[in-house]
Specification:
By secondary structure, this protein is an alpha/beta fold. The chain is built from 17 helices and 13 strands. Bound molecules: uracil. The site of uracil (URA) has 7 residues, from helix 9. The site of uracil has 7 residues, from helix 9.
């Protein structure tokens, strides 16, 4: 088999065979196919697409390219949750303890942030002592004993995705439905999940800009899951504005704890309860979604989800003292309140640009090697649909480095304020 012929066939819109896809991914994994040929094939896939069968073969080949985690020593059905990435998306830190406190098994592997989107591991590392790398035995024992563990992906999980993602990032080939679907699903399957709840984001701050393409992506991932015998539910959620009011690492831990204390934003809470309800259903803890939702809500109301959060953080070496002084936990060296110059209604709040402002304040990385400032980020005071009077505080910028006029301008520009009154956007568009 020759890779150049596979590239030509995809260029001409042909359907690739399983053998051809296996040959390509094997060559990526063993470095026998050079990056320039892989990049050409990636671009051909972006332009000509892949059908469901090809996307499933690609997913399977990618799973086989690295370690596959064996969770068979954990009793019960292992349910995972995955978000396709957004700004202010802190749901894993809320949903995981809710589900665990209701009896679900959460053996979760998360990633780091890159670009405008944050990563759960970075956020958890803002808690002193929290260990994202623990021995495999401890991971399994912890899930068996307290129902929850959250660690970083092992270095070799879906090796081909690491190579492909790095190439996609620099060759304009990230936004492709089959490539995203295979990248996400291969990691979830190699991570050992029996069932998965997907949070598929659409909008300005997401990879899929409109609901229809997000719906197609969700349906493709559901179909791949069915073929590979995994139960999947997908929530289609709005990422035209950030999730919640806090963006940044310590700031998102803060808002997660607030939500677990029943003091968080209601739309964020609702998304977490819906996702938890489906995780409990797929995990076999309850037999219908409504019961799962109610169990999740009770665990928030009676404090058991908050207690589980504490137990989990301590089990992984974290110091939970910060929970007694949450305001102190988010205290940064520099803090600037940014005020509105006009009166009106917030018509738009650009999620992607807010993610970039937070990154420029120090909360994210531009390259994988960059250090991040755990305290840097943004607290929003106004969101889409809110009325604003001139001089009202739009938000607060935080950083351990000096905050400049350019940060302030960048932040102000993310707000589109006009005299037109607009409704608050619905967060969960629908469930597939
Ligand atoms: N998230 C992933 O893991 N992979 C993609 O390709 C896009 C989002």
């Amino acid at each position: 088999m020759r890779i150049v012929e596979i590239i030509e066939r995809k260029r001409d819109g042909k359907v690739l065979t399983k053998a051809e896809i296996d040959f390509w991914i094997d060559g990526v994994t063993h470095k026998t196919i050079p990056d320039y040929q892989t990049s050409a094939l990636l671009m051909a896939i972006v332009l000509k697409g892949m059908n469901l069968e090809e996307t499933t073969y690609l997913t399977e080949a990618m799973v086989k390219s690295g370690d596959v985690i064996d969770l068979s020593n954990i009793d019960g059905i292992k349910v995972d949750k995955h978000s396709t990435g957004g700004v202010g998306d802190k749901t894993s830190m809320i949903i995981s303890p809710i589900v665990a406190s209701c009896g679900g098994k959460v053996a979760k592997m998360s990633g780091r942030g890159l670009g405008h989107t944050g990563g759960t591991l970075d956020k958890l590392e803002s808690i002193e002592g929290y260990q994202v790398e623990i021995p495999n035995k401890q991971f399994i024992d912890q899930v068996n004993n307290i129902n929850i563990a959250l660690v970083g992906q092992t270095g070799n999980l879906v090796y081909a995705d690491k190579v492909l993602y790095a190439l996609r990032d620099v060759t304009g080939t990230v936004e492709s439905l089959p490539l995203i679907a295979a990248s996400v699903m291969s990691k979830k399957i190699a991570g050992g999940a029996d069932a998965i709840v997907l949070d598929v984001k659409f909008g300005e701050g997401a990879f899929m800009k409109d609901v229809d393409s997000a719906k197609k992506l969700a349906q493709t991932m559901i179909n791949i899951g069915e073929r590979l015998d995994k139960k999947i539910t997908a929530l289609l959620t709005n990422m035209n504005q950030p999730l919640g009011y806090h963006i940044g690492n310590a700031l998102e831990v803060y808002e997660s704890v607030k939500t677990l204390k029943n003091e968080g934003p209601k739309d964020l809470e609702e998304l977490c309860l819906v996702a938890s309800g489906y995780m409990l259903l797929h995990g076999g803890v309850v037999s219908d979604f409504e019961t799962g939702y109610k169990r999740a809500k009770t665990s928030l109301e009676d404090g058991s989800a908050l207690a589980k959060f504490k137990e989990w953080i301590r089990a992984q070496g974290g110091d939970t003292g910060f929970m007694d002084d949450l305001e102190g936990f988010i205290d940064a060296k520099y803090r600037v309140e940014v005020k509105a110059e006009v009166t009106g209604y917030v018509n738009d709040l650009k999620a992607l640009e807010l993610g970039m402002t937070s990154l420029h304040l120090g909360a994210g990385r531009s390259t994988v090697e960059d250090d991040i400032d755990m305290k840097a980020g943004i607290i929003l005071n106004k969101k889409v649909g809110d009325k604003v009077e001139a001089e009202d505080i739009l938000g607060v910028l935080l950083s351990n480095e000096p905050i400049t006029e350019s940060h302030i301008k960048e932040f102000k520009d993310t707000f589109i304020i006009s005299n037109t009154e607009v409704d608050k956007p619905k967060l969960i568009e629908f469930v597939l």
